[in-house]
Amino acid sequence: MIHLQEGDMFTKVGSVIASFMFVWAMFKQYFPYELRDRLEKYTQRAFTFVYPYIQITFHEFTGERLMRSEAYSSIETYLSSSSSMQAKRLKAEVVKNNQSLVLSMDDHEEVADHFNGVKLWWASGKNVLKTQTLSFYQITDEKRYYKLRFHKKHRELIIGPYLNHVLKEGKAIKIKNRQRKLYTNNGSYWSHVVFEHPATFKSLAIEATKKKEIIDDLITFSQSEEFYARIGRAWKRGYLLYGPPGTGKSTLIAAMANLLNYDVYDLELTSVKNNTELRKLLIEVPYKSIVVIEDIDCSLDLTGQRKKKKEKEEMGNNNGNEEKPKTVKEERDDRSSQVTLSGLLNSVDGLWSACGGERIIVFTTNFIEKLDPALIRKGRMDKHIELSYCSFEAFKVLANNYLQIDTHQLFDKISDLLEETKMTPADVAEHLMPKTVPSNADVCLESLVEGLQMAKEEAKLKKEEEAREKAEEAATATATANGEAKLEENKDSVSGKE
Ligand SMILES: Nc1ncnc2c1ncn2[C@@H]1O[C@H](COP(=O)(O)OP(=O)(O)OP(=O)(O)O)[C@@H](O)[C@H]1O
């Protein structure tokens, strides 16, 4: 309250002096130069003496190229909530695909803010410049700004911690309000669509303990900026998701992005020409993003690449021949993607990968054993998450999502069948899709029981078939060994007779 009265008093004094300055600006041209200079100097001094407030102006456009200032837009977003409470005239902007409104104060409004018990004021304003062009019409150029006013005794607090707080908060609100995007690369360029995948951790069918572990890991990562800075490590984390097709690897990535409010950069490695292009693409990924490389084992010959090169060299040495001209196919293969394992490793943890921070990189694979250990060692892929066939616990999540039921007389049977046979969550989910309108849980669960029994039968037949093949192979091997032994025996008896 004291601040408010003090503020009001000084505002009045300030505005008297400001009026004087305005009149002075109009008439100063009629004063001789020397007198003008002196008067100006003393009025400025008098102004700062009686007016103990400091003002900082943040212009909307800055720099030679008049780019929109990031600080201005962060302040605008930061002030949004106090503006909607205090300002009488507001401007509205629609964000998130026309789904939510962001309000900001209109020109020449003022709102108060508090920080650590200190009151300060933000005012919005605009300068209108009229420029006469060659054409008949005048063009008006509006330059908006925010002016922050605070008592000079709080200079340190406001210039340091308060402004940091405003910029950080503004940025965070902006990220929360933004429409998230899914980027894909065509060669070395990213293009995007709106990211609207509905997957959440709640709807993800995996065991509760595993789910909690992943959520905790992600939240801890996203809140550890200071920790990473303190230990001198780039603020990034690698996840390797592995498991058979249809176990929810892509669904988990979408749930991760939705949980953290990050954009997704789906990197198609096979369309990246070489390591330089790969580096360019990754440098463009901003903070708060998940870079995804799906089916990493298919994207690159990560196991055979070094071996093949070695074999080629050996072949060259052995033959002592000149290198054969390449076929058209070989030429095309060479051109298609020359991203190497070392190029990829460098992109995951090379020096530049620290630029920006707060990035997650996710590799997915159906065959973890195919990957080069260097690629998935801890530090590169910090967390390895296995997604596997549907357990009864995971089934219950699906039943709750799809059928909105927690119990059913068929649950015990399904639990036994899931233990005896392997079915992916994707296949289980397919059985739970509505078969009638309205959906009937009995029909869906019976379909699932039937599917599981069939899968069990097929697995049994396959096992028997494999056992038969094995037995046949063993019989053939024994027969061959017996035949060879007999031949040897005969040879020996012939040489004995001689
Ligand atoms: N764990 C799961 N929880 C919920 N839904 C799942 C799960 N696994 C699979 N699904 C369902 O199955 C569909 C396919 O799953 P998803 O694409 O995530 O599997 P994937 O492991 O990435 O498969 P691929 O290896 O073939 O890419 C999803 O649309 C989702 O509806």
From TrEMBL:
Residues 307-335, 460-498 are annotated as: Disordered. PANTHER family: BCS1 AAA-TYPE ATPASE. It catalyses: ATP + H2O = ADP + phosphate + H(+). It comes from the Eukaryota. Residues 474-484 have a biased composition (Low complexity). The lineage of its organism: Eukaryota, Viridiplantae, Streptophyta, Embryophyta, Tracheophyta. Residues 311-335, 460-473, 485-498 have a biased composition (Basic and acidic residues). Its cofactor is Mg(2+). One of its GO terms (molecular function) is ATP hydrolysis activity. Residues 235-391 form the AAA+ ATPase domain. This is AAA+ ATPase domain-containing protein. GO terms for biological process: response to stress. Gene3D superfamilies: 6.10.280.40, P-loop containing nucleotide triphosphate hydrolases (3.40.50.300). Belongs to the AAA ATPase family. BCS1 subfamily. It comes from Jatropha curcas (Barbados nut). The keyword Magnesium applies. It holds the Pfam family AAA_assoc. Keywords: ATP-binding, Hydrolase, Magnesium, Nucleotide-binding.
